[in-house]
Amino acid sequence: MISVVLVDDHELVRTGFRMILSQQTGIDVVGEAADGEQGLALIRKVQPDVALVDVHMPGLSGIELTDRVRKHKLRTRIVILTVVSEAPFPRRLIEAGASGYLTKGCAAEELVRAVRQVADGRRYLAPDVAELLALGALDGHRDSPFEVLSARELDVALMLARGQDMQSIALQLKLSAKTVATYKYRLFDKLGIDNTVALAHLAHMHGLLDDRARALSA
Q1: Is residue 85 located within the same domain as residue 171?
Q2: What is the mean pLDDT of each run of 10 residues along the chain (218 residues)?
Q3: Strand pairing class (27-33; 124-125)
Q4: Among 14, 40, 62, 159, which is least packed by CB within 10 angstroms?
């Protein structure tokens, strides 16, 4: 039996996924979470085979959650779900430790196939996402300027873009305020920007910030 948890801040999305997966032989949805922090706690508690994780969530993002699952060497394999195939750059999610990448517009059959394939220890990429990665590898093109950031710089960038202050970022990442400031100025330099409003705008343009989070950061 493949155990699955759903981590998405939209209840209707979780309901839809649960209905699809619960009808499948050999798949059991064992828990749900409405944000990244709850999702990480749930994954640690039940140790499911697969977690379906939304990339845009309050607090801990899907990228950050995936990175923490990898760093803590948890057995759960992550399938990231996002609204559009171009965002946020699948290469970064793969580097963070994601085993699968799907768009929320995928067919039910593709969702089930991805869960089974990832649970079997293989990677699953939606066909259009795989094509984007292949083209990028061939011509050296980076889909997003955020790909130049390190994993920790990306963590800080996402938190700043969502309107979090330096102190809260330091507490959440368990870093000193000085270290967070260093990451901030380093990522600003790499992205060619000089303020958080520009950062939020750039993050929104490249699919890393949804409209709700952008409004909070404005």
Answers
A1: no
A2: 94 93 96 93 96 82 85 92 60 74 87 95 78 50 70 83 89 86 94 92 73 46
A3: unpaired
A4: 14
In sequence order, the 6+-apart residues with CB closer than 8 A to the CB of 191 are 145, 146, 148, 149, 157, 199, 202
- Cα separation, 185 vs 164, in Å, equals 16
- Structural domains in the chain (count): 2
Q: Is 187 helix (H, G, I), strand (E, B) or coil?
A: helix
Find the domain containing 154 and state its range.
145-217
Give the separation between CA 214 and CA 166, rounded to whole angstroms: 17
Q: The pTM is what?
A: 0.69
Give whole-number Cα distances, 69 to 24, 53, 147, 187, in Å. 26, 12, 20, 24
Q: For residues 20 and 46, is the Cβ–Cβ distance under 8 A?
A: no
Cis, peptide link before residue 145, omega less than 30° from 0: no
Determine how β-strand 2-7 pairs with β-strand 124-125: unpaired
Q: Where is the domain boundary, 114, 138, 162? A: 138
d(CA 48, CA 42): 9
Could you tell me which of 141, 106, 142 has the C-alpha nearest to residue 127? 106
Residues 157 and 91 in one domain: no
Where a domain ends, among 138, 162, 190?
Answer: 138
Do 127 and 213 fall into the same domain? no
28: enclosing H helix or E strand: strand 27-33
Task: Report d(CA 160, CA 21) in Å as an integer.
Answer: 35
